[in-house]
Design goal:
Elements (H helix, E strand, L loop, with lengths): L1 E6 L2 E4 L4 E9 L6 E7 L6 E6 L6 E3 L7 E6 L4 E6 L8 E8 L12 E2 L3 E6 L1
Parallel strand pairs: 2-11
Antiparallel strand pairs: 1-3, 3-8, 4-5, 4-9, 5-6, 7-8, 9-10, 9-11
């Protein structure tokens, strides 16, 4: 089993930056690819970024590519999402998830999910 806890969310002005962290307990994250997803009120959960088990490959939604960076530190059992140039449309609850080793963009393929952390970007 894996337990995931996101942190680092908060309120930031447009153009600002935040770094989200996802700390895992239980099984080591080297077993899994990791993803970040987000969900705004009344909207479907959407893919943000994913990273393979060893960090060798990454994948980003077009809406965040060039602004967000996913990374992982398996020694710390932690995954990060660096978010730069934040915009109001980035406002959502952000979730990390553990899943297929290659790092899938499809939420149904993930095995474990964190509780989410709120990111609010003001204009």
């Amino acid at each position: 089993q894996v337990q995931l806890v996101e942190s680092g969310g908060g309120l930031v002005q447009a153009g600002g930056s935040l770094r989200l962290s996802c700390a895992a307990s239980g099984r080591t994250l080297v077993t899994y690819g990791m993803g970040w997803f987000r969900q705004a009120p009344g909207k479907e959960r959407e893919f943000v970024a994913a990273i393979s088990w060893n960090g060798g490959s990454t994948n980003y939604a077009a809406s965040v590519k060039g602004r967000f960076t996913i990374s992982r530190d398996n020694a710390k059992n932690t995954v990060y999402l660096q978010m730069n140039s934040l915009q109001p449309e980035d406002t959502a609850v952000y979730y990390c998830a553990a899943g297929p080793r290659h790092g899938s963009s499809a939420a149904p393929e993930y095995y474990y999910w964190g509780q989410g952390t709120q990111v609010t970007v003001s204009s």
